[in-house]
Amino acid sequence: MNSIDIMVIGGGISGAATALGLTQHTNGSTKVMLLDEHLPSQRLSRGNFGLTWFMCKGADNPTYAVWCRMATRQWPDFARELENQTGYAVELEWNGGAVHAFGDDEWASLAKSVESIGEACKKIDLDYPVKMLDRRQTQELVPDMTLGEEVSGAMYTSEQGHINPLKLLAAVRAAYIKNGGHFQGGTAASGITPLKNGRYKVETSAGDYECAKVVVAAGHGCARLLQPLGEIPTIYPQRGQIMVTDRRPRRLTVPFLSVRQTPDGTYLIGLSTENTAMDTGVTPQAMKNQASNAIRLFPELAKLNWVRAWGAIRAMTPDGAPIYSQVGGHENLYMIAQHSGVSLAPLMASNVAPWILDTPSAEGQELITHFSNGRFHV
Q: Residue 6 in contact with residue 213, Cβ under 8 Å?
């Protein structure tokens, strides 16, 4: 049986960024193995919108709001370090982001969330640089686009952006390998067994491994691996759909929550939520709803050629915040489950990895404690 120090099960952005952090914080002295099953479906890391955002997250959960703000502040340096180390440009555009409002009531609701989240961040001396724009200011933000008549304004910050999620996944994995990490693709983990010596046996399709620590970051695969050990991940599947156009001249440089234009000229629209179990298909109704919303925001989008659409399955929690949890009764066995893998990627390396290594910062430890799976079992 192969022997390693830490096994990370799940090679998406969250698992790979955590594995990267484990190699960084141990300077290559710890043998880390990252397993990726290469599932043909459920690959949110290959199917998401690519926003690196903190804005509008955590309106009813101040701790999550703070966590997202911390992650976003690290994004420019995180992207720069990945590019310097691997040569992969993740196409980070750090030019802000906006959430539009239709009508006065939506505008007032957004303004209220800005105030409440800002107060939560202020309590720990963390800035929350978000402001409300009226219709005129919103139009000035996107001078080459024409706002729809119903747009009353927007919530806006200059300190967030968007990336290419496919290049991000490649860059994080490449950096992990360059730091001495071991990657095993096309490999499924089928079981985790505690051993009498305090270590774990992980059964995989490529053979068995004996590990000192195990991190399960396998999305909806967490339940299959952890339920036999008494841990039930409090996550549920939620489908999101995205539509994309052919390439057009660049006009929208500031991404909106539901519409962005990539550096290569394609427009993406999204923001759908459907409870469809593990079905990753697309539906005419969801596409119609997304298109209608996008056209209300920017009417000229109705004239574009929409050429592709896809669905992906989020790993959602009841309160929307992530799960970082040590499995009850099993020391050195951890679970990670979240849907904001892109936005939170820097913190997986800088804060979650040290927590797994038992060397967290005081601030990181206090915040991570709030994200235990046990919060749903009270």
A: yes
Q: Nearest to residue 314, comparing CAs of 339, 288, 277?
A: 339
Range 2-48+165-234+319-376 classified under CATH 3.50.50.60 = yes
Pick from 105, 154, 190: nearest CA to 298: 154
CATH code for the structural domain at 236-316: 3.30.9.10
Instruction: Tell me how far apart the alpha carbons of residues 214 and 232 are, in angstroms, rounded to a whole number.
Output: 16
Tokens of 266: 């394609």
Tokens standing for residue 90? 């993740």
The pLDDT, as a whole number, for residue 197 is 94
Task: State pLDDT tens for residues 145-169.
Answer: 999 999 999 999 999 999 999 999 9
0.70 surpassed by pTM:
yes
Pairing type for strands 259-261 and 131-134 reads unpaired
| Cα–Cα distance measured from residue 369 to residue 52, given in angstroms and rounded to the nearest whole number | 23
Non-local CB neighbours of 350 within 8 Å, separated by 6+ positions = 21, 74
Task: Return the HEC string of 115-184.
Answer: HHHHHHHHCCCCCCCCEEEEHHHHHHHCCCCCCCCCEEEEEEECCCEECCHHHHHHHHHHHHHHCCCEEE
φ and ψ at 63, to 5 degrees? -65, -40
Beta carbons of 210 and 196 less than 8 angstroms apart: no
For 205, the enclosing helix (H) or strand (E) is none
